[in-house]
Prior knowledge:
Radius of gyration of chain A: 22 Å
Oligomer: heterodimer
Structural class of chain A: mainly alpha
Structural class of chain B: alpha+beta
Order of helices and strands of chain A: HHHHHHHHHHHHHHHHHHHHHH
Helix content of chain A: over 70%
Number of helices of chain A: 22
Mean pLDDT of chain A: 84
Strand content of chain B: 5-15%
Distance between the termini of chain B: 76 Å
Amino acid sequence: MKNYSIYFITLFLLIIIAALFRVVILNSIFLDYPQLDTLTLPALMEKEVRLSGAVTIFLGFGNALLIWIVVRKIMGNRVAILSSLLYLISPWTAYLDSSGSVYSLLIFATLLFCLGSLLVSTSFRLGLFLLCSSIFLLLFSSIFMWIVLPLLIFIFLSKTSLTPSQTKIFLLTFLIILSPFMYFAINNREGVSNIVKTQVTIFSDVGLLNAVNEFQGNINQTELASLGRFVENRYFYLSKHTLFNFLKHFSPATYFTPQVKLLEFSFSPPILLGFMIPFFLGLPLWINSWRKYKYMTLLPLIFLLPSIFSNKSPDMFRLSLVSPFIFITIANGFEKSFFIDKNKKVKLLLLFSLALILFQGAVVFTDILIREPVRLQKMMQDVK
Amino acid sequence: MLNKISKQTFILLFTLVLLGGFLRYYKFTENPVSLNIDEVSVGYNAYSILKTGKDEYGEKFPLSFRSVGDYKPPVSIYLTVPSIALFGLNEFGVRFPAVFLSTLSIIIYYFFFKYFIKDRKYALLSTALVTISPWYLYYSRYATTEFLFATLFASLGILGLLKMLEGKRFWSFGAAFALSISMYTYHTERLFVPLFIAAFTVLNWREILIKRRTFLMFISLFVILSAPLAYSTILGPDRARAEATFITKDVELIRSVILEPVDNNSGLLTVLGSLFGGDIVLLFFYWARKFLAYFQPSFLFYNSLNMTTQGTYGLGILYLFELPWLILGIITLIRNKIPNRSLILFWIILGILPASLTINEQHPSRTLVIFPMVALLSGIGGVVFFQQIKRLSSAPLKMGVYAVFAILLAWSLLHALMVFTAYFPRQRGESFMEGTKEAVEYALENRNQYDEIVFDPVRGVEGPYIVSIPHMYILFYSQYDPAKYQNEIKRGGDELYGFDKFTIRKINWRIDRAKSGTLFIGSPWTLPLQDIKEEDILKRINLKNGKLAFLIVSPTSPD
Lengths: 384, 559
């Protein structure tokens, strides 16, 4: 009981900090600009669904709580608390929650899926309930999950030890959830295909085909014309483009600096720069834990897909589905290196990163109060 | 050194040099399609030094060439002088030093890698990558000797430092000399070299303490040799260049990050703003973004060399087939006790630092100093890659991996071939001032028929966005007597520059159309085709892609 009270006090404190952070963002940036709803944000975020900021802020707290529960089950309490804290203080998720993005809900659903898959082998009914709830939320919130879900379920079934009867029950329930959706999709084929086209935008950039045509035009003027038709065709070029989009997601600048601006105006980094050091310490641990955490190590790769298939890749909103796994990696790296590893150099490095985190935290907080509203105003003028 | 290598290594090296030589020499005067601004400037200044011992402004043996206001480092210009003396003031004479040095450097880098990493296989594969690297090849085929020379001198200097630690006192002189020369050769090294020496000292302080006399000798000589440069950079003309390209002048930083001064109207905001909201604080995090941007795939594998139109996939500093090699190289560096691995890490970090402190995003020439380490990492990864495949027990899997890699390798190399031979000459001709030579040659051939020749410095197919220096092309292709040019009185004024019969200024066709006896050279933006009589158009100069670059016009009689 004593242990639990410590957990609750810690979590309560975390929620206070996070609430303060989000209120500052809302108050300083978004509330002063009522036209934002109609003018800018719908164009920057998923067009179909936009939730109220209040709902997503509460969903954000739910996400932090779910991260704590999930991570506690696999990596212990220290890593769990650190992961939740990271979720709560990260500008990435704070902006996501404050701006009413549907991705706060999707993160919630993916975490539910993780929790359900962890529980399903020990408590089948509860696990199944959580899995089905998450599948329901995912299916009916984003078109992209139609692509992601089959992969998720395939990996879940292949890596989780369910009995044949449990597998049957799971698949049957899945089909029941899927059926209204299938009915809708069959009766609105054109609508569905339009939605897919607006979501899977990776190849919709006309510039790609223009580039191939220009290349081929250039080669045709040389003696390499016949070779050029084989080497420089649209299939190779689009494969290269897809690989490029994929690789972009492995660049540290994407996550630890404002290389891709949050909401296209912000100078706040998605994750504070100082966390890069524990991230790189935790990355090998995450990769090496392949057998221990089974398919959990594969999930981030699947959740990259929505961002990869965006023409604005990396799309920081779609990419936010991966954010819990990055927070877990950072927390794990930090915990293992600080509390377990005896290497003094690593500890010094972590102390340096802590100092940097505290400093940048103050800088970001100040920047949100002082400069971010001006940046948003400027961006809105440019959009006009 | 040569008698220590095996016959097999010798044959391999010889083959690599032959291949590297071919890739560098083949049509190097025609591709890149034209001499760019820097090349003509380097060429004419070298010619001027050869003939008069002074630069174009009449300064005797300068330590920094004012050139077009960019204050060029001196070494590459002085090293171009023998080539100009031998081959004349032409494309061959200007580009030959880069091509020659780059070919020679293949052998030098082999011995450097061999000593640095103490492994023949790693060294050989890394040298093979030096031979075919798109990054190195690109800068080898035109007169950008400063990047190549500076990187090579820096590498030799670092080799000298390592040899010095072995107790070979002579190498302290060699290291000091090579490192100082590298700083005189290119701007990046002016920051990289002192920082690298500091890092080297910290990493090897125990050995340095034992050989403190030798190290003191090195430091003393280095300081003496670098003192004039330090003076020039801190207090002299180079300061202007450093200030103009420093990150604080970055447009994105000023417009989107720092913004205009913001009123902090409440007490708390004032305190927070003064503590954590200052420009310098934001500058630091902006710099961090620029620094990390050098690890992005766009820079590493896609279009950082700018050999194709912006937004298309041309060539990055590495081939796409090197992706698995680079990853394995990094993993091997972290996991295994590879010799000098801390130095490799510091070399890369400190090599990127100067470039990240300047205004441009991802600058491949400013980061060329890390090229040897990138090639080495990729080479290490390549060896490990083949070792891992060999260890695979399943024959079909082994064949499958080989097949996939072979396709990737072939595709990468063929794509590079297309970029170098087909896309680059057609898509980037303008940035190499294509067409200027033909325009100048026409003007020179017909100069006696006109009272004045007016050349518009602004050009561009998409719009009048490219500012050129036609006077330098005129000086270069006319082999204008440097002594005469230094001493004659030039015409100057508001956006006007003139000497002899030549005037460099913006053409205003409404007014200029009345000036018969004058030859006008300009782009269709200032010489609008619809306003010019067909008989007045003497020549049309097209780019290799068929687009009109210049019109040469002389009004016969007013309308």
